[in-house]
Each structure stands twice: as C-alpha cells, then as structure tokens.
Amino acid sequence: MGNWFGKAGRGFVFGLWSACASVGNILGAFLASSVLKYGYEYAFLVTSSVQFAGGMFVFFGLLSSPKEVGLPEPTEEDESEDRDAQRPLMSDTEEETEAEDEKNYSVQVSDSVKRLQHQPQAIGFFQALCLPGVVLYSLAYACLKLVNYSFFFWLPFYLSNNFHWQEAEADRLSIWYDVGGIIGGSIQGLISDILRKRAPVLAVSLLLAVASLTGYSHSPNDKVINAVIMAVTGFFIGGPSNMISSAISADLGRQEHIRGSKEALATVTGIVDGTGSVGAAVGQYLVSLIQNQLGWMWVFYFFILMTSLSILCISPLILKETRLLFHERCAHHVRT
C-alpha cells in the first residue's frame, strides 16, 4: 500500500485500509457464532475456508506496485518539489529545439542505463533498525498490540465469564470493539494528515485510551452501556494500533534516508509488525496468568500499564513533533 499512495493523505487512506482487519474480525465473529451451535469444529472449518479463498484471491490478483500496470509511482512531497526545481527549461527558438532534443535523447538513454545498473536494493535488518523512529515505534507497537489483541481475543470470554452472558451473545457484542477501531483509525489518520504529524495524535488517543480502559473495567451488567464503552475503548486503542501498523510504518519505510530504496518499506514494516506480534504473543500468556491468579481487575490494570508504556516509548517523538507543530503554527500566524 505504501507504494500506491504518497505521504499526503496517507493517514486517512491507510486508516480506512487498515479497517480490513477489524471488518474481518466482525465477519469472523458473526460466522463463528452462527455455526457454534453445531460444534467448535464447524467454526474453524467455516473461517478457515473463507481464509483459504481470500489467500487464493491475493495470490493471483495482488499488484504490489503501480508500475506493474503502467501507472506512475506516487511521490513524496519533498521529491516532487526537488523534481520541479531540477526540471530543465525549454528553449524558445527553433534552432535550439533540435539540439535540445538530441541532448535530451542522449540523457534519457544514459539515465536508462544507469537505472538498470543501479536498481534499488533492499536494506539489511540492522540498517532498517537504525532508521529514525523504527525502534521507538516498534517498542510502542509491541505494548499496544499486546493490549489490542488481548482485549479482542479475551473479550468474549470476559463477557461470558464476568457477566454470565451466553457465548454466542458475547461474540456478537464484542464486535463493537472493532467498530470503534475502524472509526478511530480513519478519523485519527485524517487528523494526522491535517496536522502533518502522527505522534501528537497518538499521544492524545492513548491518554484517552487509559481513561476508557478504566471506565470499561467498571462497566455495569448492561449490554447497551457495555457496548458503548467498548466502542469508545476500541476507538482509542484500535485507532492508534491501525495507524502504527499502516501509515506510520509506510512513513518510516519511505523517509529521506532511504529514498532510493523503496524495497526498504517491506523491511521496516516487517520489523514494526513483527515486534508487535511478539508483544501480542507474550500478552496472551500473561493475561491468562494474571486472570487466574489475581482476577479480571488486575488484567485491566495490566492493560493500562502497557498503554502507558506505549506513550513512554514514543515520548521523544511526541515532544519533537509537538515542538515542530508549535513552531509551524507560530510561523503561520506571523506570516498572516
């Protein structure tokens, strides 16, 4: 996706695109709850069949780059400005036109040869790890994905175990968490595009996520109130999680230091998402351990702690981008 869209508008577009995981969660919950009365094996059969069909569609139909269908690749804002500044001026006289055409033709041939000789190469793992922001966002995503995945996977069990609701009913109610994540990723991505900064938006959302987790831990035994607070929690947790895994990963993989190596996007995205998956895997074990030993309230305390650690991990980026945003606003007011 990072090869198809430039930085302008990337937050909103990727916010919508990253909603595909939440839509899959919603459809999966509906499918599983619909066949659950026939046995758990049918829930696995139906969802795995849909996944296999989707995998075949992706395998035969995925286009990784616009150049595969003859379309120009999107450019970053700085790249387009550089091209405009370096664009040669056309001669006005007819005598100069023929000479310029011959020069341009020879330049095009030499440029083509150079492009063939110097194809962009994928950067190494440690090179990608040393790029600005990669380690900080990876650690933050590990903490946040732990909360996001643990909350989603344990939510139906929590509802049935804590409120004694039926399993199928708890599965259907849990989709409101994903609904909040879909809306949160899109709106927060749009706000980050308008501000041209990602970290401050994440900081505000994660701070409100701490408050929403506290509120949900005291949710009453009422399905409507529970669904509303659940959606709000998904908005402030799922939204930042979608932003880091999509728009921010694309930003990190196409920054100035590796502008000539677009293949680095896959490496950087793999590092961020892989680190997050490690956190999510560890979270599944810790949640079960905490719940068995201390109870559900301490599970929510654990979620609040990990969300706070996410803010702490990106705090240098939050301070840096907040200062830049403040200076830009001050400069704008001075000009006006």
Task: Describe the protein's architecture and organization.
The chain is mainly α and 336 residues long. The protein contains 14 helices and no strands. It starts with 9 loop residues before the first helix and ends with a helix. Residues 78-98 and 111-118 have low confidence and may be disordered.
Key words describing this protein structure:
336 residues, mainly alpha, 14 helices
Compact description:
The protein is built from 14 helices and no strands.
Q: How do the strands and helices of this protein lay out in sequence?
A:
Blueprint: H1 10-17, H2 19-35, H3 40-61, H4 77-86, H5 94-117, H6 125-129, H7 134-162, H8 167-173, H9 175-195, H10 199-217, H11 223-253, H12 264-293, H13 296-313, H14 315-335
- Give the CA-based shape: globular
By DSSP (H or I, 4+ residues per run), the number of helices equals 14
Detail the poorly predicted runs: 78-98, 111-118
- Main sheet record: none
User: Would you list the SSEs in sequence order as H and E?
Assistant: HHHHHHHHHHHHHH
Strand content: under 5%
The helix-and-strand class reads mainly alpha
Mean pLDDT: 76
Helical proportion, percent range: over 70%
CA gyration radius, whole angstroms: 24 Å
Number of strands: 0
Q: What is the rounded distance between the termini? A: 37 Å
